[in-house]
Amino acid sequence: MLAERRLDAVIGGRLLNACWLSGSLGLSVLQMRLLAQSWSQGREALATALIATAWLAGSLLAATLLTTSRSNPARYWGTGLLLCTLTQLALPVMRPLPGTLWPATAALGLLSFFSSLIGNAWLLQRRPWPGVEERIALMRAALGTMFGLSLVWLLPAWSGLLTILCLLPLLFLDYWPEARAPLPTPGRMVDNWFDLTEGARRWRLQLTFDWLIQGGWWRYLARRGQLGLVLLASGLAIVLGSIWNAVPTPFASILQAQGTLPILLWLLLAQVLALSLVFALQVPLRGMLGPPDRLIPERWRPWCQAVALCQPFLMAISLLALGLPNLQAPVWLVLNLGLYTLAAAIWGILLPRLRPSLSTVIFSQRHLLPPGLALDQGQLAYERSQEEHVNRFLFVSEGLLTLLLTPLAGWLTGRWTVDGLLIFAGRGLLLLLVLSVGLVGFRQLIGYRAEESGSAAFRPAPWERLGHQTGQAPPLGPTSAHEQASLVEEIEQFLRKRQHG
């Protein structure tokens, strides 16, 4: 009877994705309201950038500390965000608060920090529903800023009510009876059962922080051949993140002064069309670009890598074109922002597929193992723990560096105007990309092709290169080092026979 009352998983997944997208867009509107309120205090780009920095600090804290617990009820976070939004309705819209600039900025900064902390913790909580799809996450990242900016500056008096309307669908879904949800409720009992059934594949090993400080993350990425791509992606995320947190509100104020605020709707439409084009192209290419947890076929991987490495150049060129004085007509702004969104969406789709996780690599090539031969689960748990620590280190480092660069971007906006900052950022990105991609990216691509066309008859699979880092003791497992080497040799001989047989 309980199974009959549960909602279908496919329908539940679509329902969650729609509600989650609505809630995330509502959170973006709330962020743009706070930034617009800060701008109305004294039209200071630095003060507005500090409010954006407080918002980033709250989201970083929520993503790193408030989503690791096994049982955080999402409905409590959603209710807290709704109450926080209701209190902000009492603030004057697009009018200065009583008091001087910096005390009001400090008050808005605290409000921004706690709103971001509660809102992002709410979105990132585990729910008894299927996970958020890749397309929905891309839509939130690409459309959130312009969607919130358009509502706040075109409909300032209604933006608060529209924020609440966007938040309500996901909040209603969180209050859905757990007995009728598509999946079991996340919690200690379900997690413990999953840990017992998965065995060593669910081992969570703890590495010391000294391993990261001493360059363990660098050696790990270099050993897996992902160092150049990861550094490029992290650099882009830091620079572009700081720019798009400092620029939108001053840009909207310029359009308001010129009486051309409806351009924001055309810019939003350009982003929607660019995303629609990317999603439409995924349909005929689904044989090559599958889900994020699938590997790209070997014959298409060099082409996908070349296409991906072209996208940062397109983003830098579009950023530069958005700031050029001769390209400030509405049609050019729409085309340049659409091109930027198109390149960013392609980059966001190809990046996780060009940098697959260790579990994805092993799972996709599991059929190559001989019957009855299994990998050492202790060693795999150690490798997965390294990967998890490196990813967390990169995420926190990107967030902290973006926090530091956002006030600098706001200060430069006040000195050089929005166009000057965009031109400076576009030129700087182009120069860095020529140096980094030219020396690292294409060299990695050439090395990959040379490895493919080399005289060696066998190239070891990723699991055959598993080994402990320099200065790190290997984890305790059921097999010794000699037995692990014998296992790798047996897999290597088996695959060599398959290739030449």
From TrEMBL:
The chain crosses the membrane at residues 15-34, 46-67, 74-94, 100-124, 136-154, 160-176, 227-247, 259-281, 302-324, 330-350, 393-414, 420-442. Keywords: Membrane, Transmembrane, Transmembrane helix. It comes from the Bacteria. This is Uncharacterized protein.
